[in-house]
Amino acid sequence: MSPGRILTSKNGIVILVAGGLLLLALVVAISALYSVNRAIAWVSHTYHVIAEVNRCSALVRFAETDQRGYLLFGREEYLANFEASKRELDERLELLARLLEDNPAQTASLEELRSLIEMRIADMDRLATLRRDSGSAQRAVEIFNSEAGLRVTGGIRDVANRMVRFENDLLEKRRSTLQAQLRSASVTAGITGVIALLMGAYTFTVMRRAVIALDREAELLRQKEHAERADREKSEFLANMSHEIRTPMNAVLGFADLLRGAVTTPKQRQYVDAINTSGRSLLSIINDILDLSKIEAGRIEIRLAPMSVRSVFDNVRTIFSQQAMERGLSLGFGLGENVPPGLLFDAPRLRQILFNVVGNALKFTNEGSVSVRAEANLAHDDETKADLRITVSDTGIGIAPEHQEKVFEPFRQVGVGIDRKYGGTGLGLSITRRLTHALGGAVTLRSEPGVGTTFTFHFPRVAICPPPPEEAGRVAPEEDLDRIRPCLVLVADDVVLNRTLVEGYLEGTHHRLVHAVNGREAVQRAVDMHPDIVLMDIRMPDMSGVDALREIRSRPDLAGIPVVAVTASSMLAEENELRELFDGYIRKPFTRLVLYREMSRLLPSAQAHPPEAGAEVAPASEVVPVEKPAHKTTPNHAIVSDLQALARHRWPDLAQAPGFRETEAFARTLIELAEPVGCTLVVEFARRLLADIDNFDTDALEATLREFPDIVDRIESAASSQRAT
Questions:
Q1: Which of 42, 216, 381, 448 has the most CB atoms around its CB within 10 Å?
Q2: In the listed set 463, 494, 511, which residue is the last one of a domain according to the structure?
Q3: Whole domain around residue 258: which residue ranges?
């Protein structure tokens, strides 16, 4: 019998009944404990009232003593102590009023007490004025000790004693109530304990039978794991076989290409083309099976490194733009303003996901468009992480609701005849979903037949990091911070990553940067250095950004400095408030374009105020200078830094496991870099890579890729020589 059947048998019914009784006893016990706690609170409240009344009486005595000392000796410290006693008396009387607001009798007594105290304090204030004006102590002391004053003091004492007696009577009643409720709670707790003991003894017997059933289920789980292990071994076998098949397939395709140039008749060329087309289709199937087998066998590796979503989009656009043009389709890529320039992510795996989905979108779209867009929002509890969302939409044939889950299964397509009309193995989306899960994300599908399909990929809590070097060096004209006049920028943020990000944006510009780790330090830096603009985080330790803004605005010499609020808050009310307080507003995460727009709005352009020669902005020990790189004067030197970045970040993965699609994107990136500056060495190298890919010659492809570091070294040497001359 399984554990579930045991708990639904008659034994389970008995347990449920006993559990109900225990629950009822617990409710009664909790109610009793609540009553006890409430009685304790009332007793504590009574003690609190008594203490406050006594404190008020004592403060009146302290005030009289200090006033008498001032009248006799005229020393200001007595008068200061008298004033302190007055202030505390006001606070204590207000506290008593709140404590007694539900007791009309005591409230009336409190009003009487307050009136007498105010009368006595007013008399003492007049005596202090008399002593100060006349300089004579004798007359003031006589009035202070007059019968009228002493009568008021006695009245205060009588009212206070009456209030204390009232509270003492109330205290006795509440103590009696508390004792009764404690006895009731003790009895209830005893009953609850007996029921729990009886139920525990009975439950032990029943659960013992359930444990035996669980042992049987554990055995079934072991058998299931054995079956899964066999499935993984199958996947490893397929992976190994795929590798073995690719080697002869390379030869088939290579010799088919050679044979095409040797045949002379159209009929022979048709036969050779049929061999070539069929071979390429077979190799594509083998590649898909190899990827799926790696994932199923647990051999997929996720390598996190700084990457740029923009660069990944550019790679995908390069691969598919020609195909989209040939089919008459519009292929668009968009980045939201909040997408960070750098993320710690696996760029090759993200490219593979987009290759599969964008490739499918183009294949199944006959007219219209395919669009890819990325958006990001900061994680609610950590502003160093972002939730990344990528959508791929098309206006293609769509997917019927009953097929939308099946398309993610291996070897499944959307309907009968689709594989014959459009081709493919049905593995691409299965691989896509598994890669998405391996990256810690999720994929959803929304589609309507005849209208189109949208895939949405959500990757939560992706770490934000500085952009990779090849991305940091790319600056669009609308993002060029050098179009703003040279200025000193103060960045106040307690998170070092946020300060580093701004430093990365300003690197290579003619601006200077100074850091502050909290609001108080930001104010001090502003006083010392008079920056041209302040980028102020809102939530910081020691002093918030709003408080720091008020400090800066209170100083006439700093009041004209524009201060921009930089915050991760997404609350509309708070955003509106900050926009009214600050000169500008930036929501995290933000891009270089957002920073440029806000700075250019608040600061003059470079043409309006040309920099003065030799002008010093601030002491070098306090400011982090952001030096502008040397002007690129030679064709080879123009791409040295880009090639070095590619050699560090993209080439190592390709050299270890060269994929055709990834390598093709790499080659086209090289051509885009080298052709505009006339670097034929790099262009020829990239074309050789493309030729190896077209020939499906993996051995030649690996050999060609190994030459890349040597080519980079040769370009560096040539650039160095040109600079020397």
A1: 42
A2: 463
A3: 229-296
